[in-house]
Amino acid sequence: MKVNVTLDDKYQEIEVHINAHSFDEEVEQLMKQLKTPVTNVIDGYVDQEIRMLKVAEIYTVYVEAGKVYFQTDEEEYQSKKKLFEIERMFDKQFSRVNKSMLVNVDHIRSFQLDLLGTTELILHNGTTVHVSRKYLKDLKNKLGIGRE
Predict the structure, then answer these.
(1) Which of 54, 83, 102, 103 has its CA 20 to 30 A from that of 64?
(2) In what order do the strands lie in the sheet with 41-46?
(3) How many CB atoms lie within 10 A of CB 68?
(4) How many Cβ atoms from other residues are within 10 Å of residue 67's Cβ?
(5) Could you read off the pLDDT of 14-71 as tens digits, one per residue?
(6) Residue 26 and residue 56: Cα distance in Å, rounded?
(7) Collapsed DSSP state (helix, strand, coil) of residue 140
């Protein structure tokens, strides 16, 4: 991929032009990234208090009993958003590891592979998370490990 930047006073706002041979997955992904606003905080609820959480401090986002929760080092916070909305908002920072959980990729310490083919993630805070086979390939791709 080539990137060209043109700086000129005649532009009032940023314009992005994508030139490609065809509309493929790479173009679609690029468009999605450009449209996604960059956010580094999200609202979390504990008791009757709303706290603004830094995304970098969140280890996992999970669903339990139909409610979505953020897990940090200190506490767990409830979210008013759906899991898929959070996944879309923080696509770069988080990866889905099973049907009901997202993991902050910056907090992954190691992978633990079992002889039976199961995979567990060990996070920096010591939490162990099961990775479904369905999501393992995407997680490895996001981390840049394994074979193509």
Answers:
(1) 54
(2) 49-54, 41-46, 76-79, 67-71, 60-64, 101-104, 94-98
(3) 21
(4) 10
(5) 888 888 899 998 888 888 878 766 678 999 999 989 999 999 999 999 999 999 999 9
(6) 26
(7) helix
